[in-house]
Design a protein that fits this description.
There is one protein chain. The chain starts with a helix and ends with a helix. It is mainly beta. It is 9% helix and 40% strand. The strands form nine sheets. The chain has a twelve-stranded parallel β-sheet with strand order 1-2-5-25-32-36-40-44-47-50-53-55, sandwiched between helices. The chain has five helices and 55 strands.
């Protein structure tokens, strides 16, 4: 056995010994392959079933583990460690090969995946994300809607904007709406002079036109809602763009300068979830640690099948409507004018019913929706020194946003408080290029959480808000309390959306502290609905019992909107000590 191998095994044994109390620690070597991790987990479970007392360490050798279904860690996998050598990748992607030239384009036949036609909404060429064919390359030149007819569920747009897609069956509109974007599948287009009436498929059409917030904007100051059109072959006219013909199962691509498609590495995502940690409330998954693993190429197909009309933070609406007349709420809240129920987007890695599940120095990249999601029945756990890059939705999501049956504006306080994500630590991670598909998503999103610690993370190049914590638009006491957001460095945020902040809160959160963070360098996109409606710090509806102190920002541009009682603001702005600013920037390196 060579010296390098001895060093690796020694390190693995040392890591497992740190927390082991059993008589027989076990290292299981895993080679790259489709089912090798699953088989290794089964081996560890069988040894335990035969009476052996040990804490297995799965040593994943470098390579791409192409998955056809999620790896599932169950209660039987308690105190298991998975350590990846450098270059260990869990992939939900499919290689696209066999390219042939067709004029200025290249075309490839798309293989079946697991016995069915492969459909996808993202594509990567030589590790770089390609652009799904759209009508504008410069988003500052997006078209704007002209008017909205909600009863007829119709948008009126300039006729010139849709002339290329009049005969296309599967074109989509991506519509900018205040703090969200909606993905709407186009059903019909009727040209009427210099305007065109556009209608959409259900269910998204009905939900989208029923709900009042967010809403397509029609203003007198030139800030009508912007939109772009996508998913039609006539829109494929710029290098780096692609189009999938789902009927013929053919993929078209226009290469960037210097790309040779005969040798290019092209990946399409096929699997929504790569890893699930799944226990039960009474038998949680305990003490699992994942280290040094890259999670890559996860898809999200719901917008292709049902559209996507979000309420906020990427939570899509399943039903919503306006209240007439408005209703009063307890504790002095202002009147409520709408009702809404939401669902949760898919995630590349999902954690449910788990205690002490940790991710250390892992990489999450090329994910279509949420990258890492700690959802329900979470106790403890750490996400430390991980890298999140090229994420379509939210990089790290924590805590329930209420069950799908729970109206979004009601305070949530379940009878079984174990359901609430409690004691999770998110420390020293780097998040960049997040929310690049669903622009209304976040760097870090925390819903109904208790005792969460979000410390010394760097968040940049995010389309909306850096850190959002809380839910419910309600100042009544609920499940949230004792949260800490400290020392984070948030910069270059709000690339596409406004009504935003570097750090944003909702709802009552007693004993919560937001302190010693640095927020700076906001983007100024020209197509937002209200160019002045951005902030460094933002306590929104119902925010109560929160202390905001010693946060460095270039100016004191903050918003306290419909807040409840008990908030304290102390020493925030450019006067904050340089030592605090430098510690936040250094701490995220």
């Amino acid at each position: 056995m060579d010296a390098r191998r001895l060093l690796i095994l020694a390190a693995v044994y040392a890591l497992s010994a740190l927390s082991a109390h059993a008589a027989d620690d076990g290292v299981i070597e895993v080679k790259a392959g489709a089912f090798t991790i699953e088989k290794a987990l089964q081996e560890a479970r069988q040894r335990r079933l035969h009476g052996e007392d040990f804490r297995p360490v799965l040593h994943l050798q470098a390579g791409v583990y192409r998955l056809s279904q999620p790896i599932i860690l169950r209660p039987e996998d308690h105190h298991t460690t998975l350590i990846g050598e450098p270059g260990t990748v869990l992939s939900g992607g499919v290689r696209i090969t066999g390219w042939r030239r067709q004029g200025s384009l290249w075309v490839a036949d798309v293989p079946e995946w697991n016995g069915r036609p492969l459909e996808f909404r993202q594509l990567w060429v030589n590790g770089q994300k390609a652009v799904r064919a759209r009508d504008v390359s410069d988003l500052e030149k997006m078209w704007r809607i002209r008017s909205v007819d909600k009863p007829r569920e119709t948008l009126y747009v300039p006729a010139a904007s849709v002339k290329k897609i009049l005969r296309e069956r599967h074109a989509e509109m991506v519509l900018h709406e205040m703090w969200c974007v909606a993905n709407l599948r186009i059903k019909d287009i009727q040209v009427q002079g210099d305007s065109a009436a556009v209608t959409f498929h259900n269910p998204e059409s009905h939900v989208h036109f029923m709900h009042p917030w967010p809403s397509p904007m029609v203003t007198t100051d030139g800030h009508n809602s912007a939109f772009y059109l996508t998913n039609a072959r006539p829109l494929l006219d710029e290098p780096g763009e692609w189009y999938l013909d789902t009927q013929k199962q053919q993929l078209y691509y226009m290469p960037r300068p210097g790309e040779d498609m005969r040798t290019a590495e092209v990946e399409a995502p096929a699997l929504e979830t790569l890893l699930r940690v799944e226990g039960t409330p009474n038998a949680p998954v305990c003490g699992v640690r994942l280290q040094g693993i890259t999670f890559r190429h996860a898809t999200w197909l719901r917008p292709s099948m049902m559209g996507h009309a979000p309420l906020q933070a990427g939570m899509y609406m399943t039903e919503a409507y306006k209240l007439r007349p408005q209703i009063s709420r307890p504790n002095g809240d202002h009147k409520l004018d709408n009702q809404g129920w939401v669902g949760r987007p898919a995630a590349a890695v999902e954690v449910n019913c788990a205690t002490g599940v940790d991710f250390e120095r892992c990489v999450f990249e090329h994910c279509a929706s949420t990258a890492l999601d700690y959802h329900r029945y979470i106790q403890g756990g750490e996400v430390t020194h991980c890298m999140f890059q090229d994420i379509g939705g939210t990089a790290i999501l924590a805590g329930t946003y209420g069950p799908e049956s729970h109206e979004a504006h009601l305070p949530y306080l379940p009878s079984d408080m174990r359901e609430i994500c409690t004691g999770l630590s998110i420390i020293g991670n780097r998040i960049t290029d997040a929310a690049n598909e669903d622009w209304g998503c976040l760097g870090i999103g925390a819903g109904y959480v208790r005792g969460i610690k979000i410390l010394y993370n760097e968040i940049s190049e995010v389309s909306y808000t850096g850190i959002s914590m809380g839910w419910g638009w309600n100042q009544q006491t609920c499940a949230m309390a004792d949260n800490l957001v400290r020392g984070n460095y948030i910069h270059h945020y709000a690339r596409h959306m406004y009504d935003t902040a570097g750090i944003y809160t909702l709802g009552a959160q007693p004993h919560t502290f937001i302190e010693e963070n640095v927020v700076c360098d906001i983007y100024h996109p020209g197509y937002v609905h209200d160019p002045e409606h951005w902030f460094y710090l933002y306590t929104d509806e119902g925010s109560s019992y929160i202390t905001v102190r010693n946060n460095w920002t270039p100016t004191e541009k903050y918003l306290k909107n419909a807040n409840g009682p008990g908030n304290t603001w102390e020493n925030n702005g450019p006067m904050v000590a340089d030592s605090i600013k430098e510690k936040a920037i250094r701490g995220s390196e």
